[in-house]
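Many introductory courses stop at the sequence. We go one step further.
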Amino acid sequence: MRFVSFLAVPVVSLVACSHAQPAPAPAAEVIAQPAPPPAQPVAAPVPPPLKLAAASIYFDFDSAELAEPTRAALQAFFDLARQGYDQAIRIEGNCDERGSREYNLALGQRRADAARKYLTDLGLPANRITTISFGKERPRAAGHDEDAWRENRRDDLVPVDGQTSNAVSQASR
């Protein structure tokens, strides 16, 4: 009997398994949705590059000497230039209308060179600075009096885009 029992159990098991199972309910149709795009890393906004503002320094009549107010203005310009500004600077020497064209071109160049030397002595790289003299050709103030002449005896420190090459800066020395 044991033998029959033993055989009966598996047969019963097989019979029990052979019963038909009810069909599963139809699954709800799933509409595939596109996956959301991967999140883009949020980058901190990049500030625009710093830009220097043009400045002017002034001279006494027939002089290329840097007076104390002129030195203070150059120091302030230098302080800004070393704070991450990476612009080349053109120093434009100017004169009032008195004197010959040739004399004023030479005086304007001496003025521009004096400002350049002061800035490089402070530590501004020489390859960032070029000089030019316009003499009396570019007056800022019209007139033939001391007020107009005072305004025209100046150097203009003009920021220019890009670095100045060594060849250009050496040519201006």
